[in-house]
């Protein structure tokens, strides 16, 4: 009788997916088990993972056909980098808005509207001619706004669906679709361009897949999704949520303003340092994702492996290879990171930030070696040179991917539940603003500056991009340092969030 009464007092929008109260304990806490219909919960998670796959497929269509787009619109390296920067700037500026809305309003409606919007704009992008390159830039920015709603809210729904042990596993699966979607974006773009001879067709597949995601979202995700406030504290202990008990008649939802949430998060040093570490990671990932296929092409031209592309449609083999590397290293990296975190947490409470720091240092070293290998002439054959490049770039991406799920899990256990959407939104804002929003443009601008001081040639076209890339190795080292700083505060901040 007491259990039924407690559940009925909660606002409908704050109740979990089919969660029921199992028992009432003496003292200031009661436990609520998350025992919704198991099949439905996993179907909802699958739909969210599918949406995440589509977002990152669309995200990396442009880098997959970058050489064709650069030639079609006659863009310099700096302008080409700006294309991705516009996309990410709009994405990150919209993220805090959707974070605020996601903590307060119906998340299903927000997700559905976001999918519909970016799918429609992506389809419209495929009909832009070379005379309207500014509209092409604008359309990519609008796509970023639509995607921000999904990336901000979807992880919090998954966090609500599963307790701590399963939550890490499901978040790992969710974030596996970042590299998988990214790699498929390269492959889709290159494949459709090769098949049709027109890169515009690359933008006409993901909108159709987005329509399917929207239908599944409408059919499977409940209209009322849990928004845990102070009354639903997401301390997942042995498969339960501990809920703060309150006296009858006391208002149960502690409302705070967005500014108050931001100030509170700014005092959370684990959140601050891990967000800066993620920012360094985003800087490197954004630069690599945008420029590596073009860098490989220029390296092959200089070494005589391929001839310069002079026709309208260029070979997309580098995008196909890099797409495959991204998928393979992404899956392996995310799984390895989650498994390492699961095992090492048992012996070290600081395992998560230490794993992230180590992986960043190793990734920076691998990327630096790849850049040095790219210009060497001591390798016996051109194919061996290409193989070494791919191997070290693959290892660099592998150790970057280790951090995806681990960083998000850090946020979810050092930040109180009612601030999680806001925290994710702020992390997206900071990591993209100082990370991959600027890195593609910065790399391209440095490359332009180097080329401007030297006679135009394929050799300097390659060297300029190579010298620009060295910046990524140094930023990776800084990222490792930020995660080390996180380890100094994580135990204290976790305990405070649990309280």
UniProtKB/TrEMBL annotation:
Keyword terms: Membrane, Transmembrane, Transmembrane helix, Transport
Xref: Gene3D superfamilies: MFS general substrate transporter like domains
InterPro entries hit by this protein: MFS (IPR011701), MFS_dom (IPR020846), MFS_spinster-like (IPR044770), MFS_trans_sf (IPR036259)
Domain Major facilitator superfamily (MFS) profile: 44-491
Tagged with keyword Disulfide bond: no
Membrane-spanning parts: 41-62, 82-102, 109-129, 135-158, 170-189, 201-221, 271-292, 320-341, 353-371, 391-415, 422-443, 463-490
Membrane topology according to the record: Multi-pass membrane protein
Name the UniProt record assigns to this protein: Protein spinster 3
